[in-house]
Each structure stands twice: as structure tokens, then as C-alpha cells.
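Task: sequence design from structure.
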């Protein structure tokens, strides 16, 4: 059996620690820009602080504090937290496991709680694979974490807490019934930014200077079958011993969101927003009221980044809403173009009725709002993809007149419909989730090997600028500051990747990959310190 002893029972004060453990970085983004605020931690911390008496909460982001594993070990040993909570993405799940094992060694009385996308998707696997994890909080965490902490403190049974995975009396993983979603997000307290160490974020950011993550909604209006994001924020249901997530969408009111941003602007000096909503431009009326409120309050932001849908953006242009969005601060758009055919978009259940709307959306931005940086993502390695169809995506990216295009092999993330389907089809060849980094494909197609998908994807990256060098060079001198600075940074970052890879090939005998070196995460100097 491996049932945790409840050291929390009867404690009047409980020390709760949220941790983001050390990890590697994406080389094309500088270290300061790699690490956005993990917004779930201050959101959960604020809810616990408001609803659970006698808690002392700390948020420890090792990445922005440049704390390596030795420093984290010392910190845990000296502070002896009562609860350690960690949420992770798929590619970094192993870093979370390492941190949990460290906690159990240095503070064996601590209760360890996992959450977030990866551990929610595979709760039984999480408990079986990492014995240092005591509980998994599934999906939306505020009310569940509150109830779990309260139940353990009162000496109650974990089985009474909805929305968790735990070990039963036989030490086997068990799931409790699903917890209803929080329908009115305005009921949530303001995130505990005061606990987050705001000065650590973006001290030398180039992509998003003085930026912080914000969120207006949960869930998504789309139902893409490859997206783990919408699964995590969807409506969970326990069916035949397994959790499934249904589409759901909720949003804060425009006034509540404006209050939050004004607080960040006035009290913390935030000047750039990074929206972490699946579809930021989901509804027209909300955008009008919100943008007018930002302007009325004289909140002069440098700009904001947002994930948007093409069809909504075209509608917002037709209704005269897009100029208001730009005036209020919309300066960097990331649009999921995904592929260059209606058949492919339908295949991933994108919900876009006309794939031409993507090109139309970028045409509107190019002609009417050149101050907005235009970025899109493309999926490569769909089951019917060939080498030629993947390379054809570059033509679409150029037709959209993008500032930057990212080409990512599709990853069958656990918990998604695509994951279940790809496993059933026998297309998945890489099952080590540590390698699900969206750089190297983990599955083949019906027509291509993984190696062929990887080579065609890298061909798109290498030729995005190479096919139109003068166009992209000229944009480094754009009159629009955000577009100009971003183009300069990407030019510098590309050269940095190439030079680092060249140095490695000369001194270590590794194969020179040039710009293809962006598909390898870099280990920070402080990682082991």
C-alpha cells in the first residue's frame, strides 16, 4: 500500500507552496520571454486565501528566479512546506515528477498535489508512475483544492472530495465524481499577483516587455480535436471509470476584466498583456464594451498579444469593431491557420466554414492595421499529409503575408480525441511524453515517416525568410515599434541559434543543423545550480 499519512489533520496553520520547477528553454525566445507567469498559481492562491483560514501561501517560480535543482532542494529542506502543488504541461511532466520526489525526500510530511493539463489527462498513470504524488486535482482547481485542503485538515476522507484522483485503501488509483464548473467567473477573487513576484517577470523581455498573463474566459467556442487546452477547461464528466471533457465556454464580464487590468497597470506597472484565452475575440459585444472601458479609463498599454479566430476577426472588421480593438491595444495576433485546405480543417474539427477566411483576416490586418504583428501556426504531419502537402504550407504562409509563421508537427496530446484516435490507428511511434515538444513528430502519417515529416517541417521554417529575404529585412525598419522590434529580435535569435549550433558542431563533433537547431530545447546555465 502507498496511502499517504495525513499530517495536516488538526493543524491550525498550513504552509502551501506552488512550484514551477527548473526546465529547459526554447532557443528562439530569450530566457526572460520564455517564462510567462503561470497564471493558475496566483488564481488558485487567491481563492484559497479567501476561502480557507489559516493558510500561508508561497508561489515559487524557479525559472524566473533562476533557481536550479540544488537551490530548490535547499529551499524545500529549509522551509518544510505542508502542501506542495505543481501543475505541468505534457513536455515537462518529468520535471514535475522530479520535484515531487525531491519534496518527499526533503519534507516527507508534505502532502503533494498534482494538477494541470498533463496530470489531469492521465490521473491514474500519474499516481502509478510517480509514487511521490499523493493527489491529483482534475480540471478546474479552485473549489476542488479548497475542499481537499479543508477535508485533510478536518481528518475527513479524500473520497468525499469531488474532482480528484487519489489512492484507495488498497493503494490503487481511484477517481471521485466530477465537480461542476464555476459558471460565473466574476465570483473569483482577483489573482494573487502580490504573491507571484511580479518584478521577476520580463526584466529583459524583447517579445513582450513588461508583460503579464491575463485571462478573460475559460474553455473555447471551438472544438478542435487536437487541443488539450480546451479539454482542461471543458466540462468534465466521469463515465465508466474514465473522465471525459465536453465543450464549455465561460467569460468574465468586461467591467471585471477592465478592473483587473487597471489594477495591473496602476499598481504593478504592467504595460503589455499576454492573453491566455483559447479564443480571445470570441464575442463582439464583449470586445466593444471592454475596449471602450480601457479607453475610458485612460489605460495606455503598449499593446497585447491574443489568440484569435479568423472568422471572428473578419466579422469584427465588417462591424467596425477591429479598429476599436487596435486603438485599445491589440498589437500582436496569433491565429491558428492549421492547414491550407478545407478538408484538413474539417479533419481537425476546426469549425471554420471557409479556409479562405484565414488569408482574408491577414489581408485586412496588413492593409488596414499594419501596426499589428501577424503570426500564425500551422500543423504538419496530419494523417493524410505527404512531403509535398507539408511544404505547400509555406506557400499559404507567404500568401497570408505573415510576419512570422510557426510550423509544428501535430502532437497527440493525452486526453484529446486525436490522441485516442492516433493510438488506435497505430500512428504513434513515440510514447515518451518528455519528447512531446511540438518540434519533432511523435507520429507518422499514412504516407510519411516521422523523419520525412520532420525534414519537411524544417524546410518550411528554413525557407520562410529565405524565399523572401528582402521583404523580411525591410520590416526591421518598420515605423511601427512592436513589429519593428519583433523582426529585429527574430533576426538576432535566428543568428544566435545558427552560431550556437555551429560552435557545437566544431567543438563537440555534432551534426550542424543550422536554423533547424530551434527544435532542441536549451539547458539554462542555472538549471543544476
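Answer:
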Amino acid at each position: 500500500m502507498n496511502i499517504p499519512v495525513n499530517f495536516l489533520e488538526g493543524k491550525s496553520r498550513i504552509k502551501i507552496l506552488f512550484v514551477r520547477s527548473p526546465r529547459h528553454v526554447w532557443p528562439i525566445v530569450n530566457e526572460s520571454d520564455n517564462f510567462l507567469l503561470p497564471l493558475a498559481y496566483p488564481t488558485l492562491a487567491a481563492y484559497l486565501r479567501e476561502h480557507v483560514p489559516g493558510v500561508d501561501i508561497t508561489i515559487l517560480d524557479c525559472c524566473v528566479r533562476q533557481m536550479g535543482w540544488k537551490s530548490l532542494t535547499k529551499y524545500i529542506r529549509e522551509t518544510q512546506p505542508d502542501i506542495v502543488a505543481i501543475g505541468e504541461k505534457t513536455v515537462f511532466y518529468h520535471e514535475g515528477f522530479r520535484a515531487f520526489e525531491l519534496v518527499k525526500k526533503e519534507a516527507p510530511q508534505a502532502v503533494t498535489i498534482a494538477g494541470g493539463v498533463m496530470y489531469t489527462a492521465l490521473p491514474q498513470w500519474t499516481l502509478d508512475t510517480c509514487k511521490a504524488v499523493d493527489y491529483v486535482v482534475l480540471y478546474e482547481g479552485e473549489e476542488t483544492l479548497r475542499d481537499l485542503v479543508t477535508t485533510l485538515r478536518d481528518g475527513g476522507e479524500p473520497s468525499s472530495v469531488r474532482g480528484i484522483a487519489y489512492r484507495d485503501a488498497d493503494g490503487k488509483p481511484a477517481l471521485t465524481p466530477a465537480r461542476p464548473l464555476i459558471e460565473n467567473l466574476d465570483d473569483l477573487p482577483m489573482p494573487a499577483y502580490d504573491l507571484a513576484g511580479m518584478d521577476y517577470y520580463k526584466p529583459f523581455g524583447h517579445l513582450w516587455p513588461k508583460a503579464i498573463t491575463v485571462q478573460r474566459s475559460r474553455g473555447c467556442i471551438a472544438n478542435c480535436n487536437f487541443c488539450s487546452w480546451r479539454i482542461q477547461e471543458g466540462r468534465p464528466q466521469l463515465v465508466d471509470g474514465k473522465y471525459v471533457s465536453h465543450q464549455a465556454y465561460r467569460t468574465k464580464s468586461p467591467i471585471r476584466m477592465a478592473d483587473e487590468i487597471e489594477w495591473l497597470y496602476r499598481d504593478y506597472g504592467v504595460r503589455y498583456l499576454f492573453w491566455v484565452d483559447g479564443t480571445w475575440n470570441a464575442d463582439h459585444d464583449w470586445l466593444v464594451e471592454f475596449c471602450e472601458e480601457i479607453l475610458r479609463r485612460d489605460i495606455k498599454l503598449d499593446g497585447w498579444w491574443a489568440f484569435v479566430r479568423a472568422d471572428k476577426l473578419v466579422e469584427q472588421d465588417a462591424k467596425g469593431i477591429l479598429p476599436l480593438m487596435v486603438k485599445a491595444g491589440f498589437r500582436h495576433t496569433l491565429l491558428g491557420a492549421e492547414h491550407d485546405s478545407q478538408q484538413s480543417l474539417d479533419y481537425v474539427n476546426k469549425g471554420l466554414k471557409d479556409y479562405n477566411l484565414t488569408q482574408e483576416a491577414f489581408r485586412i490586418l496588413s492593409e488596414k492595421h499594419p501596426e499589428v504583428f501577424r503570426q500564425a501556426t500551422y500543423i504538419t504531419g496530419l494523417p493524410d499529409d505527404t512531403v509535398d502537402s507539408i511544404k505547400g504550407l509555406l506557400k499559404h504562409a507567404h500568401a497570408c503575408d505573415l510576419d512570422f509563421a510557426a510550423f509544428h508537427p501535430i502532437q497527440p496530446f493525452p486526453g484529446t480525441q486525436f490522441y485516442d484516435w492516433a493510438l488506435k490507428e497505430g500512428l504513434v511511434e513515440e510514447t515518451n511524453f518528455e519528447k512531446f515538444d511540438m518540434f519533432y513528430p511523435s507520429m507518422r502519417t499514412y504516407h510519411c515517416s516521422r523523419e520525412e515529416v520532420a525534414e519537411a517541417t524544417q524546410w518550411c521554417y528554413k525557407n520562410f525568410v529565405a524565399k523572401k529575404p528582402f521583404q523580411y529585412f525591410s520590416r526591421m525598419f518598420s515605423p511601427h515599434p512592436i513589429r519593428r522590434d519583433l523582426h529585429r529580435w527574430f533576426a538576432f535569435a535566428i543568428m544566435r541559434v545558427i552560431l550556437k549550433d555551429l560552435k557545437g558542431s566544431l567543438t563537440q563533433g555534432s551534426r550542424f543543423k543550422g536554423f533547424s537547431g530551434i527544435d532542441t530545447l536549451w539547458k539554462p546555465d542555472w538549471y543544476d545550480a
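The mean pLDDT is 92.
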